[in-house]
# Entry
Amino acid sequence: MKSRLHLDKLDELLIKYLDNLIEMRNRHLYPENWEEISLAVRINANWKCQKCGKPCRKTGQTINGFLDEHHELDAIAVHSNPIRWCLTVAHLNHTPSDCSSGNLMAMCAPCHLKYDAIHHQKSRKANKRKALEKHGQLTLF
Ligand SMILES: [Zn+2]
# Structure
């Protein structure tokens, strides 16, 4: 029992650390009431990923509390990778200041990472092309 509590503490510290990291890097891009907006989106989604339908942990909910609510889940899978069960809010157009309801979607961390990765890959290619063009390379098409 003691080790399960210990794991919950570690999970929460890790989640807080990741939240703080994101917050420190990009916080100025989000509206002041982002936490309220984000919470409302996640509550409206009934704490489920709107991409894959996976249930996710509520804010502040321990892993054991989450597993008590979801007996259907594999406890080992949840304990081994708790970040996968965190519900985030994605900006569909990748503009953090645009918090219109049509632009926000509750996504589990893996779906959000996948969604953003496609965008980041396109951005990287576009930026690389712009840099090459800036240095005189002509565009072929
Ligand atoms: Zn998902």
User: Anything to note?
Assistant: The mean pLDDT is 84. The CA atoms of residues 19 and 134 lie 36 Å apart. The radius of gyration is 18 Å. Residues 109-134 form the longest helix (26 residues).
